[in-house]
Amino acid sequence: xxxxxxxxxxxxxxxxxxxxxxxxxxxxxxxxxxxxxxxxxxxxxxxxxxxxxxxxxxxxxxxxxxxxxxxxxxxxxxxxxxxxxxxxxxxxxxxxxxxxxxxxxxxxxxxxxxxxxxxxxxxxxxxxxxxxxxxxxxxxxxxxxxxxxxxxxxxxxxxxxxxxxxxxxxxxxxxxxxxxxxxxxxxxxxxxxxxxxxxxxxxxxxxxxxxxxxxxxxxxxxxxxxxxxxxxxxxxxxxxxxxxxxxxxxxxxxxxxxxxxxxxxxxxxxxxxxxxxxxxxxxxxxxxxxxxxxxxxxxxxxxxxxxxxxxxxxxxxxxxxxxxxxxxxxxxxxxxxxxxxxxxxxxxxxxxxxx
Length: 355
Ligand code: AR6
Fold this sequence. Notes:
Blueprint: E1 3-7, E2 17-22, H1 31-40, H2 42-49, E3 59-63, E4 71-76, H3 87-104, E5 109-113, H4 124-139, E6 146-151, H5 162-175, H6 178-194, H7 200-208, H8 236-242, H9 247-257, H10 262-268, H11 273-281, H12 289-298, H13 303-312, H14 322-332, H15 338-347
Helix pairs in contact: 3-4, 5-14, 10-12, 12-13
């Protein structure tokens, strides 16, 4: 997944480069800067002394010393002064300058803290938005790089924001239906089995062999049973033959119908090129649920088409899963920004979209 939001201590991350939220002297300080210097050992400071400082919005690179990463990219974020003093532009520039250095040093994996969002006072929700927007725009032109946005202290993070309280009440409303939904689906499944009609689970199991490694537990994986044509009992062989367009075929058809290029689609889906190629070249590829939804979002499919597409991969959306309800929330509002969706999923401790 090209961009991942993770909760971690950045000093522990085994990536090519971590980014330090430094100050203009580059001689260390508190917050993440202090933690990085502590973990790297005194030779980091020795190298920093030779750099002659760094201007706000710019970045410089050093080795990682005792850290598990190869490099530390030091950037200096703006001090928040209410938002009217070019803070956003300077913060964007921190991300861009750091990423340019990462490319120059052939880094494939880079981890950023939320620059300026601690001592420098940039509101965390806005700092996260700037991080995600800037990194995703940068990655449009770069393949094969994974960028981690590291959130350290979740308690203070965005959950109090309006968007999230809206989502919370949306979830609360939908959860009310949960028991009804789950039991009615189980009942339909039971009826299908009892009538001796073919068992979709067997077919799904057969296709599961091709599932990618990042599996995602679907709360009701057999819900696909509802829409399978059930005119007369079929043997398993016959049933398999009747499986119509596969996920991969549907995906490629929709990309064409929308006049998108493959790259536009997988980038918008936050999926890396390698995984996309696998799906493209294997007609029977069965993606994880998060991957399947990521493509539905990239294609801006309405809810019914999203459901169809998920069904092709053996999944459903249900009201007994917070994850599913959050996805529904965004699709219903026509908000197909995968990074915003991921921020919300992250805030609710759910798996993120993408690979
Ligand atoms: N891993 C990941 N994120 C962290 C960690 C960690 N170990 N520790 C803190 N954070 P800050 P700034 C988060 O204050 O606002 C220093 O003194 C933290 O929760 O480190 O850019 C410098 O020398 C917050 O979200 O950096 C400068 O003088 C984010 O990192 C000044 O602070 C950034 O918080 C820079 O202030």
